[in-house]
């Protein structure tokens, strides 16, 4: 199993150009962890917390699972692209 973003501190660094950067493996781990969270919420029926609201907003399970699927697919695609870039080195 891959590293979860909650297992270690996600480092954000400022490049010489002044922009903020984080490691690609941290981004994919974050996407996958968010997907797992949405899947868990879909399974348990828990409400998704919404900042600034007194009561959490409820999303239906199908929507949560769809979002989780998109996040997993984005993480997979990013991994494929990163592997291809590493092989070309």
Structural class label: mainly alpha
Task: Classify the helix fraction into a percent range.
Answer: 55-70%
Note the overall shape: flat
Q: How many separate helices?
A: 2
Number of beta-strand segments? 2
- Spans where pLDDT lies below 50 across 5 or more residues: none
Radius of gyration: 16 Å
Give the SSE layout:
Blueprint: E1 12-14, E2 20-22, H1 24-44, H2 61-88
Antiparallel strand pairs: 1-2
Report a brief summary of the structure.
This protein is mainly alpha-helical and 89 residues long.
Structure description:
This protein is mainly alpha-helical and 89 residues long. Helices cover 55% and strands 7% of the residues. The chain has two helices and two strands, in the order E-E-H-H. It has helices at residues 24-44, 61-88; strands at 12-14, 20-22. Strands 1-2 form a two-stranded antiparallel ribbon. Helix 1 (24-44) packs antiparallel against helix 2. The chain is flat, with a radius of gyration of 16 Å. The model has no long low-confidence stretch (mean pLDDT 83).
